Amino acid sequence: MTSHPLRKSLLAAFGLALLGAGMPTGAAAQELPEFELDGLLRTGLRLESSRYDGVSGFEIYDARLGLSGKVGIVFDYALRAEYQFEIDAVRLLDVLLSVPLSGEALRLDAGLLMSGFGREAMRSKDLIPLVERSQGSLAIATGRQVGAALRGVALEERLKYRGGLYNGEGATFGNDDRRFLVAGRVAYNSAGEVEFFEDFVYEFGVDVAFASDSANLVLPVSRPAGDEEGTGAGIPGYTEFTGDRLAWSADLGLRYRTWSFAGEYARAEYDPSGNADKLSSDAWYVQGGYSLWGAFDLLARYDSFETAAGLGTEAYRTQFLVFGFNLNPGFHAKMGLQYAIGLDNSLVGVSQAIDHTNTGPALADNQFLLNLQVSF
To answer: 20 to 30 Å CA-CA from 97: which of 2, 38, 171, 374?
Structure first.
């Protein structure tokens, strides 16, 4: 099979960039004295008894490679890319320059970066507890954006804050309407960066985002073929919405010894001034976990998401119970099993196409997932 020329050129360019960073000479050796490679590979097996297309089989969920480091005492940088198998292309995830304005208390980040909305959405893919993020983290969180943000820490790294101005077009270089997205997050952790198994640790956070855009996404329901009464669940799809969008979320986490609890609620209001028919979407999850010696984890989650109505469709809530087991053998490896059960005729959850930098599978009723992961 002949390789796609664009894919070959992108892979070659990225490989040369890594090679060049690893072999600095002359002035470049002084400007780039240190760098670090990171990567993530997740592969596994998906078995689904109720998915409409009947797809089951072995998959590669994620294949990522990154380079980060410092340029003198001025800039930190990060360049990270992902190979997306569904579209047979390499896609940039992070293109970031970071400047300390006041040590770690205040930094300026610019480029393609996470916009700082959502507790789970902000967690690195290799650290999320289940195979994929929750439906709300994919559908409502603002994800990666091109823009600039101020972030920092205080109170011995217990308090973290971030706020930024972005194009609002997602992981796309450009702005088609000269309008912007404003997003921010504040989070508090009672233990800071250092946590001990015997400590009771609590954390909470709040997020807000506002955008005025000509093509905001609303998520209506696509009903199954022949379902005239709308009693079944389809795959949430897209329609464009012209106007303002206001999103916010709140989250809570508790940990004590081997037990953990987390919950998050997110809501998006379309045209919040009330000039149009009510359009809103909300999502929430609650999750409990048990970990023994850090060697394995048992997880249970309730995941709920309600689409927005639009273009003659009706809002619909997809709800799932998700159970997980993770084995952590060390050496940057993880093995996980996950089983999902749809509630109230929920067959298929939010499509991974909502966030084009997430390639993991959407939830489905009676779905089994095996995840084998290596990260460094």
So the answer is: 374
Residue indicated by tokens 């976990």: 289
The reported pTM is 0.84
Q: What is the mean pLDDT of the chain?
A: 82
- List the structure tokens of 99: 């400047």
Q: What is d(CA 108, CA 99) in angstroms, rounded to the nearest whole number?
A: 5
Q: Which of 310, 311, 313, 305 lies closest to 344, judged by CA? A: 305
Q: Report CA 112 to chain centroid distance, whole Å.
A: 14
Q: Is the Cα torsion angle 20, 22, 27, 30 positive or negative in sign?
A: positive
CA torsion sign, 281 to 82 to 88 to 49? negative
φ and ψ at residue 51, rounded to 5 degrees: -75, 140
Structural domain 40-62+126-375, CATH architecture: Beta Barrel (2.40)
| Phi, psi angle pair for 21, to nearest 5° | -70, -30
Assign 3-state DSSP to the chain and report helix, strand, coil percentages, each to 5: 10, 55, 40
Q: Which helix (H) or strand (E) holds 368?
A: strand 367-375
DSSP sequence for 11-23: HHHHHHHHHHHHS
Give dist(CA 92, CA 65) in Å, integer. Answer: 10
Instruction: Answer for the pair 145, 168: CB distance below 8 angstroms, yes or no.
Output: yes
Pairing of strands 107-114, 144-154: antiparallel
Name 129's Cβ contacts closer than 8 Å, sequence gap at least 6: 287, 289, 297, 299, 324, 326
User: Model confidence over 260-311: pLDDT tens digits?
Assistant: 999 999 999 988 766 556 688 899 999 999 998 889 999 999 999 998 875 5
Q: How many CA atoms lie within 13 A of 196 on its CB side?
A: 2
Tell me the pLDDT tens digit for each residue of 211-251.
887 656 676 655 444 444 444 445 666 666 777 889 999 99
Domain positions in the chain are: 40-62+126-375
Within 8 A by CB and 6+ apart from 177, the residues are: 213, 214, 215
* Rounded Cα gap, residues 94 and 82, in angstroms: 10
